Structure formats: C-alpha cells, structure tokens
Amino acid sequence: MSEKKIPYKIYLEESEMPKAWYNVRADMKNKPAPLLNPATLEPMTAEELGAVFCDELVKQELDNDNRYIEIPEKIRDFYKMYRPSPLVRAYCLEEKLQTPAKIYYKFEGNNTSGSHKLNSAIAQAYYAKDQGLKGVTTETGAGQWGTALSMACAYLDLDCKVYMVKCSYEQKPFRREVMRTYGVSVTPSPSETTEIGRKILAEHPGTSGSLGCAISEAVEVATHTEGYRYVLGSVLNQVLLHQSVIGVETKTAMDKYGIKPDVIIGCAGGGSNLGGLISPFMGEKLRGEADYQFIAVEPASCPSFTRGVFAYDFCDTGMVCPLAKMYTLGSGFIPSPNHAGGLRYHGMSSVLSQLYHDGYMEARSVEQTEVFEAAERFARVEGILPAPESSHAIKVAIDEAMKCKETGEEKTILFGLTGTGYFDMYAYEKFHDGKMKDYIPSDEDLKAGFDGIPKFPGNM
Ligand SMILES: *Cc1c(COP(=O)(O)O)cnc(C)c1O
Q1: Closest residue (by CA) to atom 2 of ligand 1?
Q2: Which of 113, 138, 246, 267 best tests ligand 1's pocket when mutated (most atoms within 8 Å of CB)?
Q3: Quick one: pLDDT at residue 333?
Q4: When you count CB atoms within 10 A of the terminal residue's CB, does the N or C end of the chain come out lower?
Q5: Which ligand 1 atom sits closest to the C-alpha of 142?
Q6: Residue 213 pLDDT
Q7: Alpha carbons 378 and 374: distance in angstroms, whole number
C-alpha cells in the first residue's frame, strides 16, 4: 500500500460522523461489576435507578450486551455544531522533540465549554427532555461539566440547577457567568437550599465545600422535585458510552489514512474521556483482532489506579449514591489542592477499573509541575493552550516520544487532548511564579481513605 501524505489536521466529513456509540462492555469477558444498593448490597434494579436517572439512561447504564447503540438524530445534529473534532498530527511537536515517533492527538476543546464533556451532556439532556422531564440537577467542581450541561440544556429548553463547589464558585467567577449566560441557576455548595447542605453548614460553618457534598445536594434536589432527575459528567457506564464518539471518530480517521497507533494515552479523572477514546481500539484488543498499549495518566496527588484498591465504594462523600466496584482511594479521601480539578476524583469508572484489573491497560501517575512543563512546551509549538487535566496526557506522550528518540523506534503515539485551559490561568500563574508545589500523599494519608471503604463479606 502506498503511504498517504498525512495532513496536519484530519477532519472527517459530516457524513462520516458516527451514527452509533460503541459499547465496549459488549466485548468484555469479565463485565464491570454492577452498582449495588448500599442498604441491601443487592444490585441496583432498573426501578431503583429510575428514581435518580431517566429511563433511557438507566437502560444504557445496565446494557452490557449491545455492541452499538444508535445516536438519536437530534443529538447528531447538536454534535455537528462542534464535531467532527480534528485529529491532529503533531508535526511541530515531533520536530521540536527531534523524535522518530509519530504523534497524534484528538482535540476535544473546540467548543465553548472547552472540553469533551459536551458529548455526554447533550445526550443526557436529550433523554431527559424526551421523557418529558422539566429539568436536571448536577454538581460541578472546576466548572467544565456544569458549563457543558448548561449549553446542552439551553439548546433543548430544559431547566438546569447546578451546585458548584463554593471555593470554585468564588475562585472562578467567569465560569459561573458562562453558565448563567446559558440560563442555568448556579448555587454555591454547601447551601441553605437543601437539607444536607444545611446540615453540613451547621456542622462546618465557613466550609468551602467539596465535590462529594455538591453531589449529595444535587441528588437531593433531583429526588425531591417533581419532574427532575440527576445527571453526572463522568464515571458512569452511560457517560463512557457517549464519549465513545471520540474514539469512533478517531478510528475512522486513522483507518482512512492507514494509520495504526501503537500507544494510546489519556488522562483519567473518572475515566470518561480515556474510556471513550480507547473503546473501539480496546474492542479490537478484546476480540483478539489487534494489539495496542493503553496508558491512563493520573495526578500523583490523586492516584486511584496506581495506589488505590479495587473494591466496592461510595461514589460520593455524602454516601447517598450506590456503591460501585472500582479502583478507589476511599470516598473520604480528600486530595491536596491539585490544580487539575477534573482529575481530583477518589474513584474510577467500573469499566476501566475492570480492564485495568484484567491487565488490558497500564496506568502512570505524574506530578503537577512536570505536567505544567509539558503543557507549556506543547503550547509553544502546537499553539493550543491545554487544560491542566489534558496536560497529564501530553506529559506521558512526550515521555514516550523521547523513549523512541533513544531507541530509534518509530512508534505511532495517540493521545486525547481533552480541553483548553483558559479558565486555569491562576494555576499557570502559580507555575510561572515558581509557587506550584508537588504533593504526593503518604501511605498513612491513603490508609485514612481506605479505612472509610465499606466492609462487608467479599469487599476489602
Ligand atoms: C473533566 C475533565 C477531565 C477528566 O474527566 P474524565 O471523565 O476522566 O475524562 C479531563 N480533561 C478535561 C478538560 C476535563 O474537563
């Protein structure tokens, strides 16, 4: 086969965009463990899940068998506003590094919310609207998910209540205003608007909030308000499914040019972008059709994969959500202030956890200052100002490319560039001023988190 000249950016035609999401669970021999009801320790039934999530999403959450799930036309129309996203050959970075490796990245930051989260936000909002619901509630930490959801809800004319961790609400006023521009209500959490919020405020006056607490408030409002459901931006099987649009597009573009990646890298917070990017490639590996090396990258300050345990644990700090089997640091684990807000989650997608446990994937942890060095290096040659979260993947992609420089191997490296970092300039400032610190939790710090993992026969 004659080699095709690879353009700097590969854009698919609209007609080549995926018409179905790919459900990697269908090809897994060991399926991800089901969510458990914390009161009975029995698998959550569709009825129980239906109190929190809308019906179609409950189906998707529980579907371990259907390989392809059609993307409704209305969602595909919305995707066309910002997709297909480009697959970029990082020629400039390759040149700068003087590496024989070929580096590609799939760029998901080309929309106002600035990240891949919009891929699932529009799907979740669509099914809520389709069911005739009035609105949805959610939490947001750094703000990317809340912004994505507010864009989706504005488009579909669905009401949306966002609980934003109080310290982000105060530190990131511009994120908040973007959300309000799209018409959602943003409440700093903990708040007086919920029972759990009032309880937390009474116990800890002056607290700056946490993601776990904001989740508990959003779930309370959803379950106590007629016509509302709760939506979550990562971790869940349904979210990973929606994010497979990233991987399917990438694979289509690569197949078109006869490119086969050797190494696929992504940052991992709750696992949705990484899971979405690798899904179709992982499917080939699971079916024995091809082999790839997959690497999850996480912050050393919140090392769920590399130092966590594989057990059933709560998804939220308030311990109101179901138990998920995953690599976890314990729902009470509070990571140090690492600036990559989107990667500060104590757990990990059950799908990725199972794949990692079964040896299909590797994981690495990296420290914050080296991540920002990589971010800056990348920005200076490729132009895009990357989000701190995404820069974790950049760091490991550069490491792999430098290894190729030593060995002379011409590997093809693919990584997910999940978003842009315009709202993270405070973190960049700290880095530039030399005030950024690395923090690695001690074994004792981790033990405190592990102690909070529920104990029952077969767990821990
Ligand atoms: C939320 C976020 C992440 C991490 O979430 P995943 O579910 O692990 O993908 C990564 N990058 C950006 C830009 C984000 O906003």
Answers
A1: 342
A2: 267
A3: 84
A4: N
A5: 15
A6: 84
A7: 6
